[in-house]
Design goal:
Radius of gyration: 30 Å
Distance between the termini: 138 Å
Oligomer: single chain
Mean pLDDT: 81
Number of strands: 14
Order of helices and strands: HHEEEEEEEEEEEEEE
Shape: globular
Largest sheet: 14 strands, mixed
Low-confidence stretches: none
Number of helices: 2
Structural class: mainly beta
Strand content: over 45%
Amino acid sequence: MTEPTAPTPPTKPRRRGPRLLHVLLWALTATVAVLIAAAGAIAWLGSESGLQWLATRTPLRLGSTLITLKDVQGSLWNTVRIGQLQLTTPSSTTLLHDARLRWTPTALWHRTLHIQNLSAQRIDLTQTHANAQAGAPQLPASLRLPLRMDIDHLAVGALQIGPPGALRSYGSVSGQMHYGQGRYRAQFTALTPWAHAQLSASLGDAAPYALQASLSATHIGLPGKAAERNAADLRAHGTLRDFTLDGTLQMDAA
C-alpha cells in the first residue's frame, strides 16, 4: 500500500518591487545627470570661453543663412560684444561692426524679455541679388509675442545699404521699443542725409492692427541742400491697412 504523496508547496512569486524601484532610481539618476550636463553645456556656451570656441567654428548654418562671428568678448548671460557679426543669405550679406547686447536673463522668469542695450557701431547691408517679386506684400496673421518685451536702448551708429562696392549711407538711428498688453510702442530718432526725424508710434498686435503715430522732421531736403526750417509734423491714425495721414509741411522754394 502506497502512502499518499505530500502536496507540493506553492511557489512564492518573485518580489519585483525592489528590482523595479532600482530601475526607476537608475533612470531618474541618469535623467538628472543628462539634464545637468545639458545645462552645464548651455551655460558654458554662453560664457566668454564658450562663445570664443563657437566663433572659431563659424560659419554656422541656420537654414539658408550662414553666421560668422569674430572678436567675441563677454558672456551671453549678461553683456556680450561681437567685433564682427556677418549674416549671409542667398540674396544679401549683412555685416554688423561692434555689435553689443546687454540684457537680464532672469527677467524671463517673469515672462519678460528685458534688453538694456542692443546696438551696433555700423551695419552694412549688401544686396547681392534682387529679391524676386512675389506680388503685393501681405500683412502677417498676427504680431502677438508669448512674453513681454522691453528694449531700453536700440541704436545703429551708421547704416549703409546698396549693391556690392556701392553702399549708400542712410544715417543713424536710435530709440526704444516695448511690447505688452497687446500693443507695440516705439520711439526713434533718425539722422539721415535727407532729414532729422523723431517718430513715436503705437501698433496693435492683432488684425486690423490699430495704428497711432506722429513724425516730426527738420532739415528736409537733398544732401547738402537741406535747411533746418524745412520741416514737417505728420500724424497717422487708423489701422495698418487703412489709416489717415494729416499734418503740416513747410519747405522753402528752390
